[in-house]
Amino acid sequence: MAVFLGIDIGTTAIKIGVIQSNQVLYASEHRLQTYGDDTVKYQKGHELLMTLSEAVLAIPNVFRQQVETISFSTAMHSLMPDDESKKIFLWSDFQAAIAIEAFKKTNEAPSFYEISGTPLHAMSPFAKILALRSEYPQDIHWYGIKELVLQYFTGKPLIDYSTASATGLFDIHKRQWSKAILTYLKIEEAQLGELVDPTQLVEALPEICQKFGFKTSVSIMAGASDGVLAAYASFYRTGRTASLTIGTSAAVRQVTRSAKLNYKKQNFCYYLNEHYYVCGAPSNNGGCILSWAAEQFGKESLDFFANLPDILAQTEIGAKNLRFWPFLNGERAPYWSNDIAGGFQDLTLQHQRKDMIRSIIEGLLLNVARLVKLVAPNEELSISGGFFQTAVLGELAADIFGSTCYYAVENEPIFGLYYLLEQPELPKEKAKQIFRVNQANYNKYQAISKKYFEEIDQLLAQK
Ligand SMILES: O=C(O)[C@H](O)[C@@H](O)[C@H](O)[C@H](O)CO
């Protein structure tokens, strides 16, 4: 059976998976460095390619020699003005915040959202080009991570329809770069990547096959974006159309047959393949909040994550009335505001470190619960992402959302790529872990969430 190499380039790491007949033969993870400050967030293109090369070379020879197809999942919304420095501005880069707020007041705003399916937000390459174009030569190429890696492997700056559909520059209905949007930005199609279908296969360059010790002929499948692939893998693996990923960020998504758009809600609607779209709502405050908590509160304990089950067992639902607003990173859906910050509410002398940790996790999940309500009310959810590697957090999520949650290790972008390529038959059992709702806990969280959201809405109304 053919050996597949999936490469997932996320916000904080490159993940490698070698798969054959639904089995992972080899997996590894390699950290990626992000530079900048609270507003500017970028990776270095040359460094990313170096880490990627090291990651591929670290795969044992015996597997590398057998690889027949390679494909890439890449983080959404990256923008790399293709000059010497190859800075890749990430989804979390907010340089375009002012420019996009001004754009939202123009007549074009509703139609650009309807054409592109991308929320009008600083994250999008559309917003970034709007804000940054005067700093670069007029004819510069505006690429992203996908074009960078596909150019490296195939010699052509290719971008798949799915990744393109998260740029705000792509017409998801006609499957082409939008003429109206490009005209507005005063850029030419030739300045963007070459569009291909996610399943398009292209030969790898001979020098690449030689450098990495692959066979003389290896196919590169263009692949898609990480969020869309996580949604597809979750759907394929567990049969649930609704899913939640908590990686660095978080998103609740629905796999749909047609494009579903709502200008008021600013949901995203990205292309997956000719049969499916992935629509949903993203949050800035996912696993990055837990990592922050691990840094601040984890010092005395050897392993913050290993201790979470104990901490949750020792504390009570609602963390003794302590609330935590998780907006340390601004927020996207449903508030779409950078003018919102995090913090504890009603912290008193009775609260201990363990209550604070509990309230951080509850705050994060209560915030996600609002997105679940928006995108997948009363539905079973397939869950994925690093956050759920701690199983007890799957239980907590089910109790807070009131939704049965299905976790499978395959609910990840690399498997999304593999399923797109092979459409394999899967084992009958639908997920390894099923988290059912504890009704008594859910009732308590219902009361807590009502208060929680009233308070957030009041805080926002005061801004
Ligand atoms: O579906 C998603 O996951 C979101 O729409 C994206 O905006 C991600 O948050 C971003 O790509 C970071 O991974």
UniProtKB/TrEMBL annotation:
GO molecular function, one term: kinase activity
Domain (Carbohydrate kinase FGGY C-terminal): residue spans on this chain: 244-404
Organism this protein belongs to: Enterococcus hermanniensis
Sequence ranges assigned to domain Carbohydrate kinase FGGY N-terminal in this UniProt record: 4-231
TM segment ranges: none
Family: Belongs to the FGGY kinase family.
Keywords: Kinase, Transferase
Protein name: Gluconokinase
InterPro entries: ATPase_NBD, Carb_kinase_FGGY, FGGY_C, FGGY_Carb_Kinase, FGGY_N
Any one Gene Ontology BP term: carbohydrate metabolic process
